[in-house]
Every structure is written in C-alpha cells, then in structure tokens.
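Slide 14.
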Amino acid sequence: PAAQVNLISYLWPLLMVAILAFSGVATPTRRQLLGSLLGFAGLAWFMSPGSGDGSMFGYLLAFSAACCFAA
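Slide 15: predicted structure.
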C-alpha cells in the first residue's frame, strides 16, 4: 500500500496540467496531454483490483495531498 499512496501523492504534476487545461489558463500541448493520459492510465493499471489491500481512506488522503500540491 505504501507504493500506491506514493504514486497517488505524486500525481500533482498531472493534476496541475488538468487544472490548467480545464480552467482555460493555459492550453496543454499534445505532448503534455499524451503524458497525462499515460500517467493516469498507469495509475489505473497500478491501482487495479488485486494490486494491494490498502484502505480507501488512505488513498483519499493521498489524493487530497496531491490536489493541495497542484493548487
């Protein structure tokens, strides 16, 4: 579970690209979009069922921390 939490915590660069894209502040390049999609796909694959028995509350806290870093 520590690896999953670490992976979620370091989502902040991907979240920053998503926040900037959706807010209209900046238009991400094709390379940034591709990198973000690959990053989120890797997260989905790594967090798939059977990859660990971590608690959802811990994952939520790690995601909250990533959102705070991105903001």
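Speaker note: The mean pLDDT is 84.
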